[in-house]
Amino acid sequence: MYTGSQLIKSLRPISHSVSFMVRNRNAKRLFSMTRPLLKEPRRFAPLGDDGGGESPKLRGIVFDVDGTLCIPQTWMFGQMRSALGIDKSIDILDHIHSLPTSEQEVAQEKIRAIERSAMSSQEPQPGLVSLMDYLESRSIPKGICTRNFDAPVTHLLEKFLTGKEFKPIVTRDFKPPKPSPAGILHIAKSWGFVEKGGDLGDASQMIMVGDSIDDMTAGYSAGAATVLLVNEVNAHLADHEHTDLIVSRLDALIEILEKGFVGKIGRGEDSDTGARAQGVLQNGKAEDVTTS
């Protein structure tokens, strides 16, 4: 049960640790994070290589929904805040969870009504089906971790990804929601990936794909590699320490995974990630990662 405070400790590869705390106090989130500087980029062995190799194998990918599997519908958030009577500085779900229990369901229904209206105009992200076909051909498990409720998720899967399996699907009914890593760690554990000597999920051989700071922070804090699906609105997140790699369309991940995932961290302090994000947007391709 979520008590308003969650402390989770997880491991990045090669014993790099991060601590993460989420507390709900007057509808505001407080974070406490510590992370040693990674000297090596995140790596996964090429999915197209049947050989051994030193890099760990990719064991699963978790996806966000709005803005990741489908084209962003950011106009919803303004309508939600208006319906709840809050401004942009207040997180929508944190606000709802801060309300008296008797008022929470009414508030939830207000934002669900907006989501139901929006889901009729959902559009798939470019490269969506191609990437999912590829992952299934490589037997890579797929999960979803979203702050949406279940109806828009079901609608998207039934309309654009018929027959594709995403399991488990973590919606906002799961508490605490992103940016807490709890949902991703839950998915890892459900896939049988647990830390040695414990029962906490181990996401160190997983990737979180999303388009928001909540996605990047949740993935990073869980110990997963992170991929930002970049657009004109979120390009600034390329500079964020929680972002490992940038793509402008989903199927750009196919070549990356086939040849071997290499993240950006460890390329040096002179790397201008903001400029790289703009380059990715202009070229319509994933960033070219070169290592020595």
Report the β-strand fraction as a percent range: 15-25%
Rg (C-alpha, Å): 18 Å
- Strand order, biggest sheet? 6-5-4-7-8-9
Low-confidence parts:
1-37, 266-271, 288-292
What is the terminal-to-terminal distance?
47 Å
Percent of residues in helices comes to 25-40%
The helix tally amounts to 9
* Assembly category: single chain
Net shape:
globular
CATH class of the largest domain: Alpha Beta
Structural overview:
The protein is of the alpha/beta class and 292 residues long. The chain has two domains: 38-72 and 123-283, Rossmann fold (3-Layer(aba) Sandwich), CATH 3.40.50; 75-119, no CATH class. It is 33% helix and 15% strand. It has nine helices and nine strands. The chain has helices at residues 75-84, 92-98, 101-119, 128-137, 150-160, 182-190, 213-222, 252-259, 273-283; strands at 5-12, 16-25, 28-30, 60-63, 142-145, 169-170, 206-210, 225-229, 245-247. It has a six-stranded parallel sheet. Helix 1 runs antiparallel to helix 3 (101-119) and helix 3 runs parallel beside helix 5 (150-160). It is globular and about 55 Å long.
